[in-house]
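Practice problem 4.
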């Protein structure tokens, strides 16, 4: 059962119960009030009647020795005279004395229906006769030393009808109220719960992959608070999922590419090792095979190291930055690539225009060695590579400038993608995997900077690692 249906039924049940109790109490109180009024009215009429009868004691001049029968007859006469005046279709009077009626026009037997014990002044009783509600009231007194009981028999069906009218009115009011609530409550409940349904729909869509979707409910109530909390949760979930998806995408791409790239050196290692193990070779051939195995293993090592650097840098939450002497950083990078440059016949020169910079020494050293290694591979013997540290706007630029073969303009935008290579055959021959510039770009971004590249075919390439100045890190 849906919440709105359940809430509507519960509300209607509560309204029905509350109104039923209220109307029951109200009708009960009114009925008691009407019946009590009928009893009090009967008692008042008998009391008024008794005052008229007791007037005999002031007007009748009887001797004290007058016979009891004479006194009864006088009382009977006075009662009958007054009762005749007050008698009507709904009201009848009776006079009881010495165990017998002295006067009785009641359709009932009031003395039998309402026997009055001694010392009881007034009494009343309701009973039903022929479908009519009857009230018998009694009043006991002494008149001319004669103990008598006055009875009044009344048809109070009109009071019962008034009570029945109250019941019908209460029932009609209850039915009308329920009908009104049944018409008004569902749309009100639906409207009040529509925001929750909206929130539920958004949650389903987010669960289906629409992570950027938000509820956007901005009401000043609990639903609004819930929606804002939900949107904050959705934003956090989207951020985490995006990070996980990006990490997963990067890892799948890098691992897949690494698997592909490792095939070439591993093929060489397996092929030459099989030759050494299974074929008769001269010492010179064996030495050449072992050298090939050694070079392939070194290429595999470099490839795996760069891969691990890329993956680690992708997960890095922060890097350790400090003041670095620009000259020392450039000299260390030049020495690291010195043997390769010397073997290629390439000269490396330093141009230090700024004394220091701010960054992570190891990462910047890795970036420079990668850029220098690329420059060495792109250069011909006798050409020059310049390492420069200088100002660039408000920051510092570490530049590696070569005089090599350059890069086609169409390939420049993709050079920092992992495993992208302009000349794949040459890159494999020289041991390249297409990871160097991707790593450099990530290092620059980790420092809050960027990697810029300028190149012209057959005229050389300049790669600039542009970093924020030391002023940007001042506290």
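Answer key:
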């Amino acid at each position: 059962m849906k919440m709105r249906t359940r809430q509507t039924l519960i509300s209607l049940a509560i309204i029905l119960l509350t109104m039923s109790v209220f109307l029951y109490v109200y009708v009960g109180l009114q009925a008691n009030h009407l019946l009590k009024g009928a009893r009090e009215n009967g008692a008042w009429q008998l009391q008024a009647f008794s005052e008229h009868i007791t007037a005999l004691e002031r007007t009748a001049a009887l001797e004290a020795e007058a016979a009891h029968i004479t006194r009864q007859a006088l009382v009977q006469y006075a009662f009958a005279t007054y009762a005749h005046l007050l008698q009507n279709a709904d009201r009848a009077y009776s006079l009881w004395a010495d165990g017998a009626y002295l006067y009785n026009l009641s359709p009932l037997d009031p003395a039998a229906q309402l026997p009055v014990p001694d010392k009881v002044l007034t009494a009343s009783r309701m009973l039903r006769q022929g479908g009519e509600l009857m009230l018998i009231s009694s009043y006991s007194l002494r008149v001319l030393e004669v103990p008598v009981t006055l009875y009044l028999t009344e048809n109070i069906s009109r009071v019962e009808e008034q009570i029945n009218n109250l019941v019908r009115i209460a029932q009609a009011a209850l039915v009308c109220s329920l009908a009104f609530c049944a018409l008004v409550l569902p749309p009100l409940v639906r409207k009040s719960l529509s925001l929750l349904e909206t929130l539920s729909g958004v949650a389903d869509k987010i669960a289906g992959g629409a992570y950027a979707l938000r509820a956007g409910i901005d009401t000043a109530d609990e639903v609004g608070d819930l929606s804002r909390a939900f949107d904050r949760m959705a934003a956090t979930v989207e951020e985490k999922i995006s990070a996980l998806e990006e990490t997963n995408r990067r890892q799948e791409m890098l691992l897949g590419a690494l698997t592909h790239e490792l095939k070439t050196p591993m093929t060489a290692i397996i092929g030459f090792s099989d030759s050494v193990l299974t074929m008769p070779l001269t010492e010179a051939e064996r030495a050449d095979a072992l050298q090939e195995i050694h070079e392939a293993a070194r290429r595999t090592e470099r490839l795996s190291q760069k891969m691990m650097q890329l993956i680690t840098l992708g997960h890095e939450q922060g890097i350790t930055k400090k003041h670095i002497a620009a000259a020392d950083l450039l000299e260390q990078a030049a020495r690291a690539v010195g043997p390769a440059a010397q073997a290629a016949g390439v000269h490396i020169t330093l141009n230090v225009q700024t004394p220091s910079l701010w960054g992570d020494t190891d990462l910047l050293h890795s970036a420079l060695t990668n850029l220098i290694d690329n420059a060495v591979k792109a250069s011909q013997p006798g050409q020059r590579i310049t390492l420069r540290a200088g100002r660039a706007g408000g920051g510092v630029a570490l530049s590696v400038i070569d005089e090599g073969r350059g890069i086609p303009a169409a390939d420049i935008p993709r050079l920092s993608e992992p495993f992208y290579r302009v000349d794949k055959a040459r890159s494999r021959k020289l041991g390249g995997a297409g990871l160097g510039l991707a790593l450099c770009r990530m290092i620059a971004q980790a420092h809050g900077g960027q990697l810029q590249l300028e190149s012209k075919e057959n005229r050389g390439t300049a790669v600039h690692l542009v970093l924020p100045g030391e002023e940007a890190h001042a506290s």
